[in-house]
Structure formats: C-alpha cells, structure tokens
Amino acid sequence: AVADYRPEEAATEKIKRTDGNKMTLTLTPNADIAATLGERKKPEQVLIGFALETTNEEENAFRKMEKKHLDFIVLNSLKDSGAGFGYDTNKITIYSKNKDRKSFGLKTKTEAAQDIIDVTLQSLLLKKNVE
User: Fold this and answer.
1) Non-local CB neighbours of 107 within 8 Å, separated by 6+ positions
2) Domain spans of the chain?
3) Do the Cβ atoms of 107 and 115 come closer than 8 Å?
4) What is the mean pLDDT of residues 75-99?
5) Which residues contact 99 (CB under 8 A, 6 or more apart)?
6) What does DSSP say about strands 48-53 and 72-77: parallel, antiparallel, or unpaired?
7) DSSP category for residue 119
8) How far apart are CA 49 and CA 4, in angstroms?
9) What is the pLDDT of residue 129?
10) I need a surface site. Which of 46, 83, 96, 123 has the fewest CB within 10 A?
11) CA-based nearest residue to 123, from 43, 65, 46
C-alpha cells in the first residue's frame, strides 16, 4: 500500500549514528491516489478503496468513501488477532456507497482478494441487469 507520508528529504548516503545525537525526521504527505482517481472517475467505472482504521472504523471508512467518490471501501482492522501487518491473513468488511455491508472471517490475503473481486463482480452484474 502507498503510505500517507514520506520523508521530506531523502539521504543520498548512509546516515551515521553519533553518540547522544537525536535525529528529527520531517514527513510530507504523499499524493492521494484514491482521491485523484475519484475526481476523474467516469460513470461506467468502479472505484474501490481501502481503509485501515484504528478508531471509529465504520464511520471513518464511510467518510473516506464519500470524500474520495469511491463505489466500495474495504475496511481492514488492526483489532482482529491474526489480521493486518505481519500476517498472511486478514479480516475485511466491504462497504458499498449504497451502505451495503459484507463482512468476512479471517482468511488468507489471497482469499480476501477473491472476496473483493466477487463482491465487485456481483455488483456490476446487478447494475447491468437493472439497466
């Protein structure tokens, strides 16, 4: 995943440790790829974003989905044992802009990716049948 921030200045050489000296690292925001894509999205396109939240998970995920003009948002929680960083498994909830919610149990990240594809395809097929 693309990080929200990056170091403002990149070192061209190794920064040597010196006794007792502290280092301050200044971070600058990266471009918001999802927001940029949301601004350019065409009606026939489907945009899926991801949210890793630690507080007010559902509320923050919906806010992000609306702000960035996403059709779906996949919420990852760090609160679940065996999910998130450092694991080969994840537990996700997929929300749609229509406020539909689909939660999945702990699965491998490959299985979770397949769940995202399945939910998206199902939505596209329903949309096509309505039109």
Assistant:
1) 89, 90, 91, 115
2) 49-131
3) yes
4) 86
5) 62
6) parallel
7) H
8) 14
9) 64
10) 46
11) 46
